[in-house]
Amino acid sequence: MPSIFSYLSSEIDWCEGNFERSAVIAEYYNTSVPVVFQISNVSFFILSPALLYLNRQYCKQRALPLYFVSALLICVGIFSSYFHMTLSYVGQLLDELSILWALAAAYSFWYPKVYFPRCIKSRKHFFWLSGVTTVVSTFLSFIKPALNAYALNCIAFHLLYLTRKELKKCNDYRVHRTAKIMIMWWVLAITSWISDRWLCGLCQMINFPYFHSFWHVLIAMSLLYCCPLVIYFDVNYEMPSFKPKLEYWPSDSWPVAVPYVELERSHKQC
Ligand SMILES: CCCCCCCC/C=C\CCCCCCCC(=O)N[C@@H](CO)[C@H](O)/C=C/CCCCCCCCCCCCC
Ligand SMILES: [Ca+2]
Ligand SMILES: [Zn+2]
Fold it and tell me: Is residue 69 pLDDT above 70, yes or no?
């Protein structure tokens, strides 16, 4: 019986051919090989510092949540690289559980109080609820690991639902624009993920089994737009002495620009 650490012990194997470019890296393009055009998982190592740097005003006010979730996103990058390098059972679970815990931490810190279930009276109680749910989900994830990634992808639908609810209450056109771009990246990302999972034969026929590495980059792009939105709504809900303003780096006028939140001392807008 192969060890849970051994190469190819995971029941998941992505479309990219194994060991085609290296004897030690199973899926070269899906791993974080920092060569031009092979960025893939490296996007997670860029995402966190970019998030912390651009939103430094917010970070001064809410350092712990932002540093904590950024660190977890780096863990996602490390474990995902390890998974694609080895395609091992342990690699798969580390990859998926780091995503689960990063999402759980983000929900615990930033889930708006107005959407708390009625029985939850404070954020402290909500922390406990998320903690218990995440610990239970962690145990459940060992039962049928092949389903974990599907379950995690479903969380994106809940995030889309929350985005829609928040957009209805907000008339800042920058928020709407950022949300639209986030959704565009996510649609491209999930299409790539599904193509790699379900249409591998076709991908190999057209000689392009690299959709999963595109997923890594596209989902990181989507998060790059998602994070400032989360911050924007958090400032609106939880920091009444500040007014959030979405800005774009390097400049508003660039066709592709990264959003971030600036804080102004004022009253609420939406
Ligand atoms: C102010 C900051 C707020 C941050 C909140 C967001 C926290 C997000 C935490 C983690 C998401 C990381 C997802 C990246 C996965 C990369 C690893 C990977 O590719 N793993 C695959 C195997 O290698 C595995 O099959 C993938 C499983 C599915 C993961 C699905 C995650 C859903 C994330 C939702 C992102 C929302 C973006 C916008 C939604 C409209
Ligand atoms: Ca493969
Ligand atoms: Zn991956």
Answer: yes
